[in-house]
Recover the amino acids of this structure.
């Protein structure tokens, strides 16, 4: 494999504490090395910013729910489907792009890893088919457990070992990466026409509360010592006054210590926090609760969060939180899609227009930015748009421009039709902080890598790490002042190296790279009880056969397996 | 007003998507620059110059530009799509999406058009001196935003699903239409001079449909509520007013229910 040396670039790397110093980066055999031979190809990065490849910690980019969104919203791709010259295929879709566009766009933005945030275990094959078809970027998927019958039954009886054994079995069957939990208990309660809006609401029939599910899953996660922590979309998403429920559920992690061999420190990752940080009692007196929530997060070292920034676009919301999507359909009366996944979870989809002329949507935009700006530790706060729920991931450059420049942010804030109302309902106008390039490298590289348990290979430019490198046309000494310039610079990398290969050059995809699917193989002591329960549930309830349930090897031909061993715990 | 003339010199093998054949894309360009504008044939990118002989020069703005298209355009899609101002005359029959998402200006087609023409039109004047296909002035597949403004007039007949999801503007068909006229309509005016097949005004919430001819089978929910003399598109006549079984509470006037109407000429 060819050798490269990247010269004269301004390097930002949180793993080594490099803050824009000029440093040469050497690449050999897909890894970053100390030095290379004289025949190495020189890449001149003069007046450019060099960072590690970015990691997406939460996005909906592959699987049956994303695909359902694609086929039921043909209008989303109508004016956004084109073939660009070169080796790429036709790129279609805006809020729900095709798998090809997903891969290309992430690469152009400087990303090399993306986490599919909700995989229904029953439809894991579809998720892996789409992951396999997404070019360039490495991917993994989190199976959803928050409304799973097995999990609820075991946790109700306080059987953490059995819960962990079941989770380990599912991870192996679905080639999953960790534990995702969406509206714990609420989605199952919806099958009875109910929802769980606080963490102490009982789930009908199972007689368990969301609080018990959350605590049980955190314990099971640490019992197994998985690379990623418990990953939660909390109860009562998107409702005014929900910040109390959010803090209540974050408090459940208090006193629990992370046990793993991957350098991860958090025990709970709370996703798209923007949707969970609202004060007020209705949409009329709606206010930002970002400060309250972030004050707690800043204090509590064993938590990480991501923002879920609203980008003020027309988008498509899709989540395993079935009751919430029904509620959303009631608000905007647009077409609604819903499906129940037997024994496991559910999903809903509704198109959504975040109209900047509407005070509520503009306030949601402000809340998302506040969350990132209130974060004291950028290693624990990551930037996402919960793609495509708060906006498409292709809008990351715009989100960066709002976070990195108070001028750009205030321009947007003050030109809202209902600016007075938005300024009164949020604190954004009083925040002067501007995220620096170094902090950005923490929020999008080193932080997510550590949170996902991938800090050995990802998120930095230390020798020995994967040669995933993004070079942007940004001169830190002359940082662009207009929003459009910042956006342009982040939207198209000058170069993207993936595993030591140049995949994007001057914003153009030149190589499809070699993508990997990551999954976690957790070894647990033999558990006859759990295997018996699984067999019984398949015989009694599932519409598929147990033998047809696992994802075959051929679905993930380029797999990277992370092994964890919990057999000694017994 | 400057005039640009496009004459078809080569027929595309597949269909040509002329998304750039409108006054807005031409504005400020000379013939040579217009020839370089892109057009898709399948997934292959070609240029307008590959298929048209282009003469003349566009005005500085779209409003200052007039486009005349000659030759056989039956394989050309998207002519005049998304235009916001200016004038365009197509002296041929043309394919799908002609005048779709049009926002302003004047578009005239001297021939028949295929389906999806005047799709989600928001303004301007679109006249078809021929017949139109299905989904005239409707919403794009899956979309919920149909024609919202402007005037669309068809001299001949139109197909099925005309003006579905219409929310504003005026659509006039001087001939007959097939099934599903004005489905999911939430505003605007449809004037049908000829006859309609079944299912006129299904899910009609707001807006008016005037029918001069006959409706083959009236939807079961509709009932006559009175008679009125009105002048519609220059013709004064007595109409019977029908309302359906679907109304909507008026958002501003509390408690009052707004109905969609079908007016049948006596």
């Amino acid at each position: 494999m060819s050798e490269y040396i990247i010269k004269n670039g301004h390097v930002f790397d949180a793993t080594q504490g490099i803050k824009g110093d000029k440093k040469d980066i050497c690449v050999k055999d897909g890894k970053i090395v100390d030095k290379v031979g004289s025949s190495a190809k020189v890449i001149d990065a003069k007046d450019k910013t060099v960072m590690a490849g970015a990691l997406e910690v939460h996005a909906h980019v592959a699987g049956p729910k994303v695909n359902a969104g694609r086929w039921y919203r043909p209008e989303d791709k109508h004016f956004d489907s084109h073939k660009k010259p070169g080796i790429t295929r036709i790129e279609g879709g805006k809020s729900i792009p095709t798998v090809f566009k997903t891969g290309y766009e992430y690469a152009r933005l400087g990303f090399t890893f993306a986490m599919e945030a909700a995989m229904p275990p029953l439809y894991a094959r579809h998720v892996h088919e789409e992951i396999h078809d997404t070019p360039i970027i490495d991917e993994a998927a989190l199976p959803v457990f928050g409304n799973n019958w097995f999990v609820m039954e075991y946790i109700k009886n306080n059987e953490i070992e059995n819960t962990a054994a079941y989770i380990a079995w599912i991870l192996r069957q679905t080639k999953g990466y960790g534990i995702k939990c969406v509206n714990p208990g609420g989605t199952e309660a919806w099958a009875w026409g109910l929802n769980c809006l606080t963490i102490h609401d009982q789930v009908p029939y199972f007689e368990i509360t969301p609080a018990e599910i959350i605590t049980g899953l955190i314990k099971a996660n640490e019992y197994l010592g998985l690379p990623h922590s418990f990953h939660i979309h909390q109860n009562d998403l998107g409702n005014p006054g929900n910040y109390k429920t959010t803090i209540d559920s974050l408090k459940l992690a208090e006193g629990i210590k992370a046990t793993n061999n991957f350098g991860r420190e958090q025990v709970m990752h709370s996703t798209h926090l923007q949707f969970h940080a609202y004060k007020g009692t209705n949409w009329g007196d709606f206010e930002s609760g970002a400060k309250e929530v972030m004050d707690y997060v800043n204090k509590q070292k064993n938590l990480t969060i991501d923002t879920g920034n609203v980008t003020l676009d027309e988008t498509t919301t899709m989540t395993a939180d079935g009751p919430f999507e029904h509620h959303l359909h009631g608000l905007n009366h647009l077409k609604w899609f819903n499906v129940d996944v037997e024994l496991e979870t559910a999903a809903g989809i509704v198109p959504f227009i975040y109209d900047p002329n509407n005070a509520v949507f503009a306030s949601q935009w402000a809340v998302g930015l506040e969350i990132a700006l209130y974060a004291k530790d950028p290693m624990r706060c990551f930037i996402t748009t919960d793609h495509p729920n708060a906006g498409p991931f292709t809008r990351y450059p715009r989100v960066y421009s709002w976070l990195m420049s108070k001028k750009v942010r205030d321009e947007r804030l003050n030109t809202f039709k209902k600016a007075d109302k938005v300024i009164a309902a949020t604190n954004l106008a009083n925040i002067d902080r501007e995220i620096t390039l170094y902090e950005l490298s923490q929020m999008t590289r080193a932080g997510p890598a550590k949170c996902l348990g991938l800090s050995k290979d990802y998120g930095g430019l230390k020798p020995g790490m994967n040669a995933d490198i993004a070079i942007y046309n940004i001169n830190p000494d002359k940082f662009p002042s207009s929003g459009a310039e910042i956006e342009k610079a982040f939207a198209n990398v000058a170069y993207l190296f993936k595993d030591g290969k140049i995949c994007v050059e001057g914003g153009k995809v030149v190589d499809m790279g070699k993508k990997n699917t990551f999954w976690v193989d957790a070894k647990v002591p033999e558990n006859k009880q759990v295997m018996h329960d699984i067999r019984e549930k398949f015989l009694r309830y599932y519409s598929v056969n147990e033998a047809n349930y696992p994802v075959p090897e051929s679905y993930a031909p380029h797999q990277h397996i992370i092994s964890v061993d919990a057999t000694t715990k017994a | 007003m400057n005039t640009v003339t496009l004459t078809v010199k080569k027929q595309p093998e597949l269909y040509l998507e002329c998304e750039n054949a409108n006054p807005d894309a031409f504005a400020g360009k000379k013939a040579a620059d217009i020839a370089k504008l892109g057009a898709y044939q399948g997934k292959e990118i070609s240029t307008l110059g590959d298929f048209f002989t282009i003469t003349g020069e566009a005005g500085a703005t779209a409003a200052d530009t007039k486009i005349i298209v000659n030759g056989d355009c039956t394989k050309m899609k998207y002519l005049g799509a998304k235009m916001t101002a200016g004038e365009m005359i197509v002296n041929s029959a043309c394919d799908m999406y002609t005048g779709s998402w049009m926002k302003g200006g004047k578009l005239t087609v001297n021939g028949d058009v295929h389906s999806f023409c005047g799709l989600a039109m928001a303004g301007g004047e679109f006249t078809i001196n021929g017949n139109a296909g299905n989904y005239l002035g409707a919403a794009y597949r899956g979309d919920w935003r149909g024609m919202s403004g402007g005037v669309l007039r068809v001299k001949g007949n139109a197909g099925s699903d005309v003006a579905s999801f219409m929310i504003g503007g005026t659509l006039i068909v001087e001939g007959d239409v097939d099934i599903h006229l004005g489905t999911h309509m939430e505003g605007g005016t449809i004037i049908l001079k000829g006859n309609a097949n079944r299912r006129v005004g299904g899910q009609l919430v707001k807006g008016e449909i005037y029918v001069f001819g006959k409706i083959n089978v009236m939807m079961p929910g509709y009932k006559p509520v009175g008679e009125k003399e009105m002048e519609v598109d220059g013709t004064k006549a007595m109409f019977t007013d029908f309302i359906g079984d679907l109304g909507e509470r008026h958002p501003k006037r509390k408690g009052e229910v707004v109905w969609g109407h079908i007016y049948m000429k006596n």
Remarks:
- The first helix of chain B runs from residue 23 to 26.
- The interface with chain A takes residues 40, 43-45, 139-144 of chain B (CB under 8 Å).
- The helical segments of chain B are 23-26, 31-35, 48-51.
- Chain B has three helices and 17 strands.
